[in-house]
Amino acid sequence: MQSPDEVIHSSNGRLSEVVSATQLDAGFGLVTVLDRADFDKVVLPAMIVKRDGRQVTFDASRIEHAISQCFAALGRTPDTAIPELTMRVVNVLAAQRWPVTAEIVQDVVELTFQGAAEFAAARAYIAHQSQQKRTVPASRVRRRAGADTP
What we know:
single chain, 5 helices, two-stranded antiparallel sheet, 150 residues, two-stranded antiparallel ribbon, alpha+beta
């Protein structure tokens, strides 16, 4: 009898071998999944790159506020609690191996909404963020482009 820590691994539809539960067949070979102890190694991003190129301190409460504002604009509460949606976004951002930008945060929020079946919220958020991109002041765009003069 197998221990609870083992699972049957099937490659090509036949039972082939027993592997640790911390491994999965992702279609291109075995992939090790993080053990629970490895979660302590996940670190939140320290900085975020804004649309105008400035780097500011990462603040998860700003993401939570944006999610709250999105649902307030829709006049309803989400099926998944706002703090839970925020945590999902932050977890994805914490796993990033590259600098976190405002655009990456936007993409992750959109995907999180879709993953939670909050499609109306995703559409509203996309529309709002698209409008935000168009309203970046010209001075901020010049700064992003590296122009020295106003």
